[in-house]
């Protein structure tokens, strides 16, 4: 699914030099590499503050802690997403309100959000799933109208551009009160261990994020709030520094692979290729098909026999997870999420896919109908 070794070999001189610099400096926590990375990422995103942390889940949790939400406050979250998005809501004793998504883009929409709003809605968490942005222009207009916070889960769409209706462009993850991302190794910008970050343009929120991530302290041993310990270490920052200048090239390589898949598979009537939304480009963290003939699992088994890896993101929607039954009304019906979990399958997608590999994968899919 991901070829990190080949990518490393291409970037080996800069990655090795960055790691060696950290070892020479022996500044492993919040060292120069961390400071440099957070500034370069802020410049890339066009955002005022980047606050690194230990992983993407921590980023979401710290972001929610910084907004002074109260137990029982409602947080709207798509049901078709990774568990971390909702997990931190429950951990903070907030109430996850799970909603459906658009069946073609897999994204939460302003219309879905508006229908789920109540006087108890304090936060909405759009997930920029698989590599493209939700409609953040309209979502932020809703937030201003109804007075709720927005935290963007941008773990899968770092580098994607959203286009306003007037043509202006802005990076996904920089619209909401806070944006969050993960640097898990398989992400488009991946470390060689865990890592994450939060983004904001708000001075007060930035100060809270920094404080909470550092044991609730601004000055050492003086703790103003209950916080946590969540840091991006210097070695991971050095690796990310070497990769950040290549992020747009990574997206271009992923799009080239996606275009090959599109051309080879787009005419097959038993599957649907990924839809591109009109107001966001796609950085293809995943290339996800919908299998319409009820043969998704059979297709996965067939491809496995051919030596072709696939993944199902996600096999169970959040509203059906045992961990969240306490929050789910028995009458809750999210048919799109249910359907997607039975239809989606993701093909190999990374920066190092060769034309031979893409040909092998697509030929196997084309030939599946004859089996």
Structural overview:
By secondary structure, this protein is an alpha/beta fold. It has two domains: 4-245, Type I PLP-dependent aspartate aminotransferase-like (Major domain) (Aspartate Aminotransferase, domain 2); 247-368, Aspartate Aminotransferase, domain 1. The chain has twelve helices and 14 strands. The strands form four sheets. Strands 1-9-8-5-4-2-3 form a seven-stranded mixed beta sheet, with helices on both faces. Strands 12-13-14 form a three-stranded antiparallel beta sheet. Strands 6-7 form a two-stranded antiparallel ribbon. A hairpin with a 2-residue loop joins strand 10 (217-219) and strand 11. Helix 3 crosses helix 4.
Question: Descriptors for this entry?
Answer:
single chain; 371 residues; Aspartate Aminotransferase, domain 2; seven-stranded mixed beta sheet; three-stranded antiparallel beta sheet; 15% strand
